[in-house]
Amino acid sequence: MAGSRPLSSGLRALRPAAFGADPSGERMARIRRSPHFENGVFRNPGGAARTRPSGSALDFAKVYFDRDVRPRRAPRGTVPVHATTPADLARPPATGLRLTWMGHSSVLAEMDGRRVLFDPVWGERCSPFPFAGPRRLHPVPLPLAALGPVDVVVISHDHYDHLDMPTIRALAGTDTVFAVPLGVGAHLERWGVSAGRLRELDWHESAEVGGLTLTATPARHFCGRGLRNTQHTLWASWAVAGERHWIYHSGDTGYFEGFSDIGAEHGPFDATMIQIGAYSEFWPDIHMTPAEGVQAHLDLQRGGPGGVLLPIHWGTFNLALHAWAEPGEWTKDAAEEVGQAVAFPRPGEPFEPTGKLPVEPWWRAVSQPIAHPWRPPRIAEGVAGTGEEDLDLAGER
Fold this sequence. Notes:
By secondary structure, this protein is α/β, with parallel strands linked by helices. Helix content is 19%, strand content 16%. The chain has helices spanning 7-14, 25-33, 57-64, 86-90, 165-172, 185-190, 258-266, 290-300, 326-338, and strands spanning 37-38, 41-42, 97-103, 106-111, 114-118, 152-154, 177-181, 198-201, 206-209, 212-217, 237-241, 246-249, 271-275, 308-312, 350-351. The strands form three sheets. A seven-stranded mixed sheet has the order 8-7-6-5-4-3-15, with no helix packed on it. Strands 9-10-11-12-13-14 form a six-stranded mixed sheet, covered by helices on one side. Helix 8 links the parallel strand 13 (271-275) and strand 14. Helix 7 (258-266) runs parallel beside helix 8 (290-300) and helix 8 (290-300) crosses helix 9 (326-338). The longest helix has 13 residues, at 326-338. It is globular and about 55 Å long. Residues 1-11 and 377-397 have low confidence and may be disordered.
């Protein structure tokens, strides 16, 4: 019929907007030229990674539905959120560097006169659907509109708990620049971000924004937002260098030897934001345990304690089988063993890494006691790697 659209175009139009868009055209051509893209997919450092529960579905279900385990996966009281105010953020940091953990992996970094917002997720659920998927365990500390101007938004990868469509659409109406891994720009363009405001980078590539140098660095994870994981968008950690300060955000990653290389090239760092939650023996390759997170920080600091570690990717969403408070407790244990400074702010509580650190274990008031000292998770017998697999609709564990 004259004027009718091809069937493929019609199917794309029916795809939920939250799924984003697949890379195409010159963006896809650039992906194919990447040295990290082989045989149609992006490859992890260190080889293939297990990206969904290993072992039998029965083994996983036994743990998931265990009546003794399930209550421990959520707080037993109201999570104490610091009521961040615009006045808190209006005062310039005395030392030139201030971090505000907004929950999960969302962090506002104010450094050397610029403002960087990592993995902003202000949505109620990390899911493509408003009626299903992991829901917040605490409210956001302040409305997104009250955050004030942001120079650059940095995205680590396109899973729903790191790339939130309603949040991006709200930020698309501002003047901020977006720094994203290769391929992720397709999602943002569908949601209203102009191509001229995108800095889309492969690993080891850098962009300059307002006097800051942002470098996409390797991570060991995976990607995808739809029914099938095509591995056509990259995942990354990020090193950000200013005139006086250097910071690092891990995104999501399993532990790998590359942290030492990142530290040698871009560190040591004044502060690192390291993923220490949502780990499991069922997917050991793509998320770090607390002890691995502390070791990653030491690697980034060129082999020893230094700077400040801010634990992220915990406390806000229930994404794994471990107890809700376990990442905080075990990170505290692992850091104390090696003499590493760790900040434990309540969500929304600003702090300066070279100032007085928030160190109170605030989670203890709203959680069941956690076993001490830190112990490694038991690896189930017979659990074998499955290669890089499809992901579930929530886009995350």
